[in-house]
Amino acid sequence: MSGKVLLVDDEAHITRNLEKVIPWDMLGLTVAGVAKNGVEALELMEQGPIDLLLCDIRMPVMDGLELVRHIRERQIPCDIIMLSGYQDFTYTRAAIQYGVNDYILKPIPYDELTGVIARIMASQRNKQKQKLEEKQKLGRMIDLASEKILYDIIMDYTDVTADNWLLTGDEQQLKEQQFVLIVLDLDVSSEKTKDWRDWSDKERKLWNFAVCNVLREKLHLQSLQHAVIQIRDGEWCVLIEVDKNIPYDPVQVKEWTNTLLTTVSSHVKLNLFAGIYREFASVADLSSAYKLVQQGMQLTPVHDVIAVYPSGRTITSKADQAFWDTAEKIIGAVKRGDTITVDFELQSVTLLLQQMNEPSLGRVKPLLHFFVLHLMREMKEMGVFSREQEDMLWRRLDRRFGIKDLLSVIREVTLAVSEKSMDKKKQSERSMAEARSFLDRNLYRDLCVEETATHVGLSTSYFSLLFKQTFGETFIEYVTRQRMERAKAMLADTQKSVAQIAKEVGYAERRYFTKVFMKYTGDNPTDYRSKHQDGEQEHGSDLKQ
């Protein structure tokens, strides 16, 4: 794309020569206009943007220096080369003060001028490229931040009320959006997934990462605004942003889902199942929508590769729902290390089974099997099992066995957690203390929850849960709050520039930092500094008096 140049000189033969002699096409420029003085030049510049201005100093009506002063005062973005027949240093100094890029003496050395223009335009292109890269980097940073916030919302760790100061700038738009929600899951009990079970933790982590990348790339190629959020090992939630003005199209959503499954199968060589939420979900509905889809997938022993939940044809019985609720209570209690609740709920399950007749027991057995799988996957995220214990439990689950055996496995799992609960609690406290220390040392960097979780040796999902339980806020809320508090102190106590402070607290882009800071404090950084530094000076004067 060509840039535009404006030629300003009261001598017509000079502007004609400039138009003819300078190889504008080769320099990537077109002559947008010619003016005889500064007033005409300003009128032309108001009609459209100019990339480069070649301007004489001595002209009637408005001379070149006055023109440049107006351009800089109005903050019109363009590079400027001054042309002059006067070698007086006063002119040169004035031109430098106004930020002129170069100063060429007449008679014009056209070869030299061509070289100067080429250098300036190359610098412009480099700056534009750098701005584009920064914009793309910022856009990706916002996308990642949005994904982390969405994870916290789905897991019900945070809310989307007006009081949530974290939702600022581009993230603020999350509250206005609606999504298609798709849960992709690996059937860990399938014969086809036995190889996956044998993989090391490192191999599984790489595989999970590969699936996320494949999904994101496919959605990007289809020009769909999206978020891909790994919930746990082998389970993802895909959110596709949709226009509020269009109706829900189940056929289109199934096509998207089938494309994602086919892409993962083709590139990663593993087959997943998909559960689709049956309507659009607002941000406030994401947590409940996700739980309904996950519950539907867990409570349906035999289901299609792609299924919609809640399904109109699927009626969840009271017994089915009771088992699901019990599973969630047990898993929650295990994560908290609450062995009393675990024992109580297991006794409730046993009592419920004793009261059932034979046909009911036949229906409950597959539910118990899914319950065990669900429990094992959650415990795997917590790092409760050794590899030997996990392999032993998988071997037992692969066999056909009765309800008593299933209950025995559940008890084994919960007993393993109970035995480790005290050690686990101490270890968790140490992990969170180390996480806090790591974050405080690295606030200046582009931190992510995955890196911090890996640093303390925990899975991302368990780390997120533990972090919320320990500090009472999510990872992003904590990091952002610490950055803002550090920025407040630096603004009040130092003379560092806002851009420098932004970088030192982990924001590569000043504008984004300013948005977050204003949402957090109610002031922009400059006003905050003025209030607090002026306040300190007044306080010092009072003490002297």
TrEMBL record:
Keyword DNA-binding found: yes
Ranges for domain HTH araC/xylS-type: 433-531
Record-listed 4-aspartylphosphate modification sites: 56
All copies of domain Response regulatory, residue ranges: 4-121
Region named Disordered: 525-545
SMART domains the record matches: HTH_ARAC, REC
Record carries keyword DNA-binding: yes
Basic and acidic residues bias spans: 526-545
Record keywords: DNA-binding, Phosphoprotein, Transcription, Transcription regulation
Cross-referenced PANTHER family: ARAC-FAMILY TRANSCRIPTIONAL REGULATOR, REGULATORY PROTEIN POCR
Protein name stated in the entry: Two-component system response regulator YesN
Species assigned in the record: Paenibacillus harenae
